[in-house]
Amino acid sequence: MKKTTPVLFITAMLFARQLTAQNSTPAYQGTVGKTLAESKEWWPQPQHAPAGAPNVIWILLDDVGFGAASTFGGVIHTPIFDSLANNGLRYTNFHTAGICAPTRSALLTGRNHHSVHMGGFAHAFSSAGFPGYDGRIPTSKGTIAEILRDNGYNTFAVGKWGLTPDEDATDAGPFDRWPTGKGFEHFFGFLGSETDQYKPDLAEDNTHVTPDGRHLSEQITDKAISYIAKQKKAAPGKPFFLYYAPGATHAPHQVSKEWSDAYKGQFDEGWDVFREKVFAQQKQQGIIPKDAQLPPRNEYIPAWKSLTPGEQKLYARFMEVYAGYLTYTDYQVGRVVHYLKSINQLDNTLIFVVVGDNGASKEGTLYGTVNGKNSLPNNKNITTKQYLELNENGIEKIGTPESFTNYPLGWAQATNTPFKYWKQDANAEGATRNPLIVFYPKGITGKGGIRTQYSHVIDLLPTTLEFTGIAQPATIRNIAQDSIQGTSLVYSFADAQAPARHTEQYYYIFGARAIYKDGWKAEAFHRPDIIDENDFKDATRKPYTRDYDKDVWELYNVNEDFNERTDLAQKYPEKLAELKSQFDADARRYNIYPFIDWDDVFHRRIHNTNAQSTTLNK
């Protein structure tokens, strides 16, 4: 008989007892007579969290590859994440949606991203007037913050939001799709997909504010600690929920030289050696199978030894800055952890760390960008050689407040070790497989354990609800709620061998698509000739429309071939046909149709920009 920890037993009992929603408006239970003497007063009781419910923190990093952090075999130091994982659990088969807004909407709602209308982004240039793509999360798809708020928690969010439609992101609102309209009582961060780390487009609660010149990660950490301190002073026994989502490590890669210079010379051997080192360490740590093989370098990426000395020096510096940026982010998370320990709350806090909302970013192009606004595709009158010379001459600016930096594609593949491809390529594990850390000393046995159950970002909401003893509500503020699509992971906390309960999952970003079911995965790479949006060199060309029916589907048994090296499509055509049929069913169920790819988005952006210019010039 399996041993059950006391906390898990208590929370399971609490969960079983709460069969109905707790946040519906109760009927008046007093008596109203003609006079006060004939009447009986009544007030609804304030909602309290279940007895013993812990504080909850969700930490979501941005654009971090599977093999970047030391916690999962990488060579970039992340001592705080290491400590949380060593005293908690590492989930190595956890997945995201493949790009930021879809992942964040799925995470916060426990539902697939098209189901909550976030098939792309909330930005005007990329949202579209279809149920799966309009970028507006319906009120019937409530967030974890709304649920916890209505069940006795205080709720705070700091950092990146990324889910507010552009036209709503002004001080005039409306604010129902700002964080404060989605269940967070306080918010401090930015509403868009990216921002300058020293000059952020900063908002607090429902208004934009002026940044103070310090790094954004420092500012959001200060604010998070302040929220916790004030809340614990006012209501010591009341739990809180903190959503901590730094801009890091999304571009621009910006961090003080104190952090980046700590990595001086450590990447001079290049991305090929980096991949081999990380792969060996992942095997040693048990992160990947002992018999795993490293996929070959992607065809787009040159061998490190083929680069000129100037290119090697430039590219190594890009990676030094990125590594310093990630270590600095770990340090800022550590400030929150140390504060919780200082007020005796760390052992009473359930912490989830999702190490990236997608795989490493390919958006730095083949050559990297010192100033992203001035990248090679936007410099049509210079050659690649001249562009590289420009970057080499500006090497000292990389990572500084004067830059808008992103590293070259070779480092994206390296930090995605042991997988193929990168962010946006939702067909591949390199875009969608991100590590997860679960920390809660009171309720997790087998500290430092590894969990390999298949899981997805939509699973964190039901996991949190089950562990805290809160039922999924039938209504939120009297609005009927759709069902949760994720699967709680609590079953795996105490049992590393428990069969996975999340058995089927689709993926779709800009035409790249996949379907996972019971250890098998079918996938189609829609645009293998386009690395990223910067490959559109000519904005005036006609849209390039690929026939989706001609996309080549591949088939993998990821239980046996976790990093997708052997395509079995020809060997098992019936299994491929079965999975393709399943994808079509999911596409109809979750509003994935109509397919929209990056080419459509790019030309929609050009059209909208031209239309706006025409309107302004009238």
Automatic annotation (TrEMBL):
Domain of life: Bacteria
Pfam families referenced in this protein's UniProt entry, alphabetically: Sulfatase
Transmembrane stretches, start-end: none
Sulfatase N-terminal domain sequence ranges: 54-470
Molecular function GO terms recorded: hydrolase activity; metal ion binding
Record keywords: Calcium, Hydrolase, Metal-binding, Signal
Signal peptide annotation: 1-21
InterPro entries: Alkaline_phosphatase_core_sf (IPR017850), Sulfatase (IPR050738), Sulfatase_CS (IPR024607), Sulfatase_N (IPR000917)
Record family assignment: Belongs to the sulfatase family.
The protein, known as: Arylsulfatase
Organism: Deminuibacter soli
